[in-house]
Amino acid sequence: MEAVVISGVARRVLDELLKNPYRTIELRSAKNVIGVEKALSEALKLFLTYDPFEDVRVGTEGLLAEPVEVKEVETRIPWRESDEREVTVCRVKVRLLGFGRISGIERGEIIRAEVREFHLHEANMG
Q1: Measured between alpha carbons, how far is 78 from 56 in angstroms, rounded to an integer?
Q2: CA distance 110 to 2
Q3: Which residue among 19, 89, 109, 113 is buried most deeply as judged by most CB within 10 Å?
Q4: What global pTM score does this model have?
Q5: DSSP for 8-56, written as a single string
Q6: Whole-number mean pLDDT of the chain?
């Protein structure tokens, strides 16, 4: 199945998604936000991985999820930590579909991947 890669997701978030199949994830990376928008407009699934954008390759393992609801929210950050005081955050509610492994990849502004679903006993996420 074709999916959009959402990279750099905290391991804690992935673990919580395994415990509860519905979870709202807060994304700040522009690449991830654009990826979610593409996935919604083209009815694609999301492939969530702990690996950073640069390290995603054929063989990368992660979780397959379906976007359920998306909200863009303006949030304020402490002034001394940044030159900007507002940040746009994308909150996406996802539904866990299962595990996946990338079998083909297309890089651009976002990463599109051909993902093979697999069973729990095949996973090596650790």
Answers
A1: 32
A2: 13
A3: 113
A4: 0.86
A5: ---HHHHHHHHHSSEEEEEE--HHHHHHHHHHHHTT-EEEE-SS-GGG-
A6: 88
